[in-house]
Amino acid sequence: RDLHSFPTRRSSDLGWTVVGMARRAAPLPSERYHHMVADVRAPDFRSKLTAAIERLDAIDACIYASGIGHELALPAFDHEADVFATNLLGVVITAELVLPRMIARREGHFLGLSSQADQLITPSTPSYSASKAGMSAYLEGLALACKPHGVAVTNVRFGFVDTAMSSGTRPFLISADRAAALVQRCMVKRPIRYTFPWRMAPLVWLFGLPARLRVWLS
What we know:
Structural class: alpha/beta
């Protein structure tokens, strides 16, 4: 149920040559798929990503689908830096290495999987919502900067996807396969922002309203 495996499988089935990176081995039955074990938080991530890029003559599309979240359990701050490193700094490093190659060709599409939680202020998972807010703002800023150079950037904002991170009963829960199909649709239409399900957006806003009021009234 890992989300990254579905767009990878779909892309290789369509005849694309795909290089996938994850913290664990994830072999797929395709001669067109090459897998590399890497952690975006590790010091060697830049070198491993560079090696992955060099396997390809050109990069038509890059999907950043890494994401983690942890509840804040004060007084401990054990996981906060890891969340920012994975959800935000990882996408910055990936863009740093991938986008210049796309810009040089004046062609390509960079997609990042953010979250509708990017609009929340929450005391329970402040690092998750803040890192996703930074990711969304960064991707959309990059989209405006890269568009004149022929390169598209898309900020994909899902709600709950049925992966290990959000397992269980959740409102508007979608399967990982469904999420991958929507990512593939984004690769065709190339929007700057894609939010799904859109009906969840006002509920997220209402859910975050009490915390915003506490901030405004403090």
